[in-house]
Amino acid sequence: MGKLLRRDDFEFLAGQPGYSPSLGRRFRTERRRVFRGYLRCLRRDFGRVSLTFHTLIVHSAEDRGDLAAALVRER
Questions:
Q1: What are phi and psi of 56, to 5 degrees?
Q2: pLDDT by residue (tens digit) across 9-27?
Q3: d(CA 68, CA 61)
Q4: Which one of 10, 27, 41, 62 has the minimum C-beta count within 10 Å?
Q5: pLDDT in tens, 19-58
Q6: Is residue 74 a contact partner of residue 50, using CB atoms and an 8 Å limit?
Q7: First to last CA, the chain
Q8: Can you give the chain as a three-state secondary structure string?
Q9: Distance between CA atoms of 35 and 14, rounded to whole angstroms?
Q10: How far from chain centre, in Å, is Cα 22?
Q11: Distance from C-alpha of 6 to C-alpha of 51, rounded to nearest angstrom
């Protein structure tokens, strides 16, 4: 994820023949769009894992304090 926002690629692109500021803006905009999409996927995955933990805690026949503590800590 960090590579999507690193300056190295932007600096490399700026040094290439045919580079224009509008191309740089488009590249940066696209990178941010990809970054936000990836972040949305991570949030959705975390939500699913959290829901699974919550379901296990509620329906467990034994006390699952360890899962409850992990869930609270990670949120």
A1: -60, -40
A2: 888 989 999 999 999 999 9
A3: 14
A4: 62
A5: 999 999 999 999 999 999 999 999 999 999 888 888 888 8
A6: yes
A7: 20
A8: CHHHHCHHHHHHHHCCCCCCHHHHHHHHHHHHHHHHHHHHHHHHHHHHHHHHHHHHHHHCCCCCHHHHHHHHHHC
A9: 21
A10: 27
A11: 33
Residue pointed to by tokens 């040094």: 15
Interatomic CA distance for residues 40 and 58, integer angstroms: 27
Query: What is the C-alpha separation between 5 and 31, in angstroms, rounded?
Result: 7
Give phi and psi for 25, each to the nearest 5: -65, -45
Residues 6+ apart with CB under 8 A from 38: 1, 4
Structure tokens at 18: 């045919």
Q: Are 57 and 68 in contact (CB under 8 A)?
A: yes
33, 40 Cβ separation under 8 angstroms? no
